[in-house]
Design goal:
Elements lengths: L2 E5 L5 E6 H7 L2 E13 L2 E9 L10 E2 L2 E4 L11 H7 L9 E12 L2 E13 L14 E8 H8 L6 E8 L5 E8 L9 H17 L1
Parallel strand pairs: 3-8
Antiparallel strand pairs: 1-2, 3-4, 3-6, 4-5, 4-9, 7-8, 9-10, 10-11
Helix pairs in contact: 3-4
C-alpha cells in the first residue's frame, strides 16, 4: 500500500495516510508533473500521454506527459522515476526545468484529488519512437503544437489535433492523428491549465 504525506494548503507536512484515504478525504498531498516539449522546424510542440484503459481513474483520457504521486519516504526529486516508469526514458533531474508548485483539485464521484503539484519541463530531443510505454499505465503518446494547446487551455480553441501512437494488444505502435476537445483530457482545474500554459510559454520564449 502506498502512503503519502498529508499537507495543509501552505505545504506544511501534518501527517501521513494511505493513498485511498488521501483521495477519499480530500487531503492535500504532493505530486510530480513533467511536461515534455520539443522544437521541430521552428515549431514548438507539447506532448500528452494517453492513459491506459486499465487505469482506475480517468481511463483512456489524455494527460500530462508524465506524472505521479510523491510517496511519504520520497523527495520531490525522486518523482523523476515516473518518467522512466511510464515513458521508458531515463532523464536526470538536472535536465528538467523547475516551474514551481501549482495547486490542482480534481473532484469526481467521491474522488477528491487535492494536489500541490511540483511542475517540471523537459526538452525532448529524441523522436516519437524513443518512447517505450508502460502499457499498464500509458496507452499512447502524442504531440500537438504548443500554441494550439495554449489556446485550448484558455478556451480560444474548442478542438486541437494530436498526432502520435497507441500501443496495440500485441505491443505494436499504431500511429494516429486525432482531433480532441478539453473533455478528452483529465479534468484538471482551469486554473491549473492556465498557469502551466503561461509558465511553459515563458520558457519557450526564452529558449
Amino acid at each position: 500500500m502506498e502512503y503519502l504525506e498529508i499537507l495543509d494548503q501552505s505545504g506544511k507536512k501534518i501527517g501521513t495516510a494511505d493513498r485511498d484515504t488521501v483521495h477519499r478525504e480530500g487531503y492535500w498531498h504532493e505530486t510530480f508533473h513533467c511536461w515534455f516539449v520539443s522544437r521541430e522546424n521552428g515549431i514548438d510542440y507539447i506532448y500528452l500521454q494517453k492513459r491506459s484503459h486499465l487505469k482506475k481513474d480517468f481511463p483512456d483520457l489524455f494527460d500530462i506527459t508524465a506524472a505521479g504521486h510523491i510517496l511519504a519516504e520520497e523527495t520531490i526529486q525522486d518523482g523523476v522515476r515516473e518518467i522512466k516508469e511510464e515513458l521508458g526514458i531515463d532523464v536526470p533531474i538536472e535536465h528538467l526545468t523547475d516551474l514551481g508548485v501549482v495547486e490542482d483539485i480534481i473532484s469526481s464521484n467521491g474522488f477528491i484529488d487535492k494536489e500541490r503539484a511540483h511542475v517540471f519541463l523537459y526538452w525532448m530531443e529524441g523522436k516519437m519512437d524513443s518512447f517505450l510505454l508502460q502499457k499498464e499505465e500509458v496507452a499512447g503518446i502524442s504531440q500537438t503544437p504548443f500554441i494550439d494547446f495554449f489556446h485550448l487551455c484558455f478556451k480560444k480553441k474548442e478542438k486541437i489535433t494530436l498526432e502520435g501512437f497507441d500501443i496495440t494488444e500485441l505491443g505494436e505502435q499504431n500511429f494516429f492523428a486525432k482531433e480532441i476537445s478539453i473533455k478528452d483530457i483529465v479534468p484538471h482545474q482551469s486554473s491549473y491549465f492556465n498557469r502551466v500554459a503561461l509558465l511553459i510559454e515563458k520558457e519557450l520564449k526564452q529558449k
